[in-house]
Amino acid sequence: MTYDEEVELRAAIPALRLAIVSGTTRVTYDGKTVEYRSISEMRAALRFAEDTLAGPDAVSRRPSFATTRFSRGL
């Protein structure tokens, strides 16, 4: 990742968080405006930005959850 890409991601994260909380799909940061189609698309962009800045091991450090089902076979 280049320095400029990192700077852009760091600027986008708080702008994305604020827009998600406020319920708007338009984000403006560093003189750029991005219009997202949905809040879920914005959450995916935020997750991508955070994971990219955290490095390649970030996904493996995220907590995972598993559900186990048991049956007596009755």
From TrEMBL:
Highest taxon of the lineage: Bacteria
What name does the UniProt record give this protein?
GpW protein
